[in-house]
Write a structure and sequence with these properties.
Blueprint: E1 4-6, H1 15-25, H2 27-37, E2 40-42
Antiparallel strand pairs: 1-2
Helix pairs in contact: 1-2
Amino acid sequence: DVLEVSVVARNGMTADGLATAVRVMGVAAAGAVLKKYGGRVVI
């Protein structure tokens, strides 16, 4: 599966950091983090 991570970088959380989080935690867990930081995950 190809994941596209679109996010507004806030609180020092970078797009690269979020992409890594998606790979480590999986889509569901990372999605919750992305919502917190104002981003979204598109599969």
